[in-house]
Design goal:
By secondary structure, the protein is α+β, with helices and mostly antiparallel strands. The chain is built from two helices and seven strands.
């Protein structure tokens, strides 16, 4: 398992995770610019989770046709919470939360049932 590295690798002025490309926007935000045309929703979710863990920054995704298709698919499956963010002239998806198993944790009531 040690040989299996699943992180972002730096290439010139950007970072790569399989077919996914991204780069730091500033000190607090990492922007995924392109998921790639053959990336599945599960691979996109892995790239988002890996970016959150590796860079310890907020993650945003540029709004393109391919990226929006994958983000909408993850939102419909309840695996991702995202909102639209405007950064200057660019539109991004701001990632609010990730649920890899597709289930948001339900809050338990503070009272007990007998």
């Amino acid at each position: 398992m040690v040989e299996d590295y699943h992180g972002w690798d730096q290439e010139e002025d950007h970072w790569r995770f399989a077919d996914v490309v991204g780069k730091p926007y500033n000190e607090t935000v990492f922007v995924i610019s392109n998921f790639g045309s053959n990336t599945t929703a599960r691979q996109a979710l892995s790239a988002i989770l890996s970016a959150m863990n590796q860079f310890h920054r907020r993650v945003q995704v540029e709004q393109t046709d391919v990226n929006t298709r994958l983000i909408e698919k993850l939102k419909e499956a309840s695996m991702l919470r995202a909102t639209t963010i405007t950064c200057g002239d660019d539109e991004h998806w701001g990632i609010l939360g990730v649920h890899p198993d597709g289930k948001a944790k339900k809050k338990k009531p503070w009272w007990k049932y007998w």
